[in-house]
Write a structure and sequence with these properties.
211 residues, mainly alpha, Arc Repressor Mutant, subunit A, 2 domains, 0% strand, globular, DNA-binding, DNA-binding (chains A, B), HTH tetR-type domain-containing protein (chains A, B), Homeodomain-like_sf (chains A, B), transcription (chains A, B)
Chain lengths: 211, 211
DNA sequence: ATCTAGTTGACAGTAACTGTCATATAAGTA
DNA sequence: TACTTATATGACAGTTACTGTCAACTAGAT
């Protein structure tokens, strides 16, 4: 990683830190881009060079999870059923989504409830990659058969439901993120996603990641 | 319906017509609000009084379906299982989503692919109403039990998948909207959503609305 | 006829972006 | 080390979606 790349990442992180702090204090809508830039110690020009849009400041952190899910799914045992493998990948990823910075993010996000229904867990590119991987596992052609796409869509929607439930609830009273996500993911798994008449391998292997 | 209300609806419809025509011709991003207002024969001020945001011009038509789904679900037979009743309500609604104006809308929407992942089939208020109705059918408390919310979320996600597939495909080559939606909805239905150990009434009553 | 409430357009703002340009600094090359 | 090139920065001007206010107007009820 070159010095330029490191500095780029540093500036980006500093912008996020500044933005989340301001959002949490004053509310998403009340904070201007100029304030964020000032708080981050850069000019507005530079701010816009690093941030595509104000919304993305909040949405990008979750979207980054998409790449992780793809990587995890690629490493799953090949004989595992598509639905199980996908659910486990998502669940494992949600386990790593924690820490002090995440709490800052959550506090910031709570001030922008109108963005709640726009949580896309993943970029279109990563989603397409997931569909291909799932189709391969189901031994179907994603072009002619919509089932792989549907499974990915529903599984991500279920995970999203878990994320939203976790987001809405207060810090300590509600269930943890993995618990929220796992409960929702379970609803999508089932016979429907099998590759053929008698390939049930891996079907019972739910709940292996959480403590 | 008073004259004022009728005129209001008329202006609104005229704005939509103008906007869709311009979007389809020049692309969503290339069309300014002033152009739309001019084409609709009103001032920019009036435009903004009728349109919350440019995005909503495209998104509102689908969102209006939400009210219809709620109404349909309220009229479903009381002994029908929650998942079946909800699926049928959505499917019936999607049947009425057709006509020449819809084709204009589809053409307009195609020029704004970045809005595709923001298709919320329903407003938060209607969604909450659906959750209550579903919870009642499942005999569960929507406050403590997340299953009704999850069923609604997944069912809407499935419908959304159908809508997106229909949207993407060309006018005559792809499957019709109801077919796309029905195929997706079927994936969510199942034993999981039953109200109790032995209440299976209405469980087999899929596919009754489409020809 | 008149009073009230909702509608309209002109106008002046705000804030999120976009594009350009001169300047500075990291990285590759002689 | 010196030189060149690619990239980052900040100042600035512009665009556009959207908001708020105000005076003129019009439908609807009394």
């Amino acid at each position: 990683m070159s010095l330029r790349e490191r500095q780029r990442a540093l500036v980006r992180a500093e912008i996020q830190r500044a933005a989340f702090a301001l959002f949490a204090r004053d509310g998403f809508d009340a904070v201007t881009t100029e304030q964020i830039a000032a708080e981050a110690g850069i000019s507005p020009s530079t701010y816009f060079r690093h941030v595509r849009s104000k919304e993305d400041l909040l949405l990008d952190p979750v979207r980054e999870g998409g790449a992780g899910i793809v990587a995890l799914l690629e490493d799953r045992p090949a004989d595992e059923a598509a639905d199980v493998a996908l659910a486990q990948s998502i669940l494992t990823r949600s386990n790593t989504f924690a820490g002090a910075e995440v709490e800052q993010w959550r506090a910031a996000f709570r001030t922008a409830p109108h963005l709640l229904d726009r949580v896309a867990l993943i970029t279109p590119e990563h989603r397409e990659r997931l569909v291909d991987l799932v189709a391969q596992r189901m031994a179907r052609d994603p072009e002619t058969d919509s089932n792989p796409g549907l499974l990915v869509h529903l599984m991500l929607a279920a995970a999203e439901f878990g994320y939203l439930r976790w987001l809405r609830e207060s810090r300590n009273r509600g269930a943890s993120l993995p618990v929220c996500v796992e409960g929702a993911l379970a609803a999508v798994q089932g016979e429907r996603w099998s590759t053929g008449p008698d390939t049930r391998r891996g079907r019972r292997a739910t709940r292996e990641t959480t403590a």
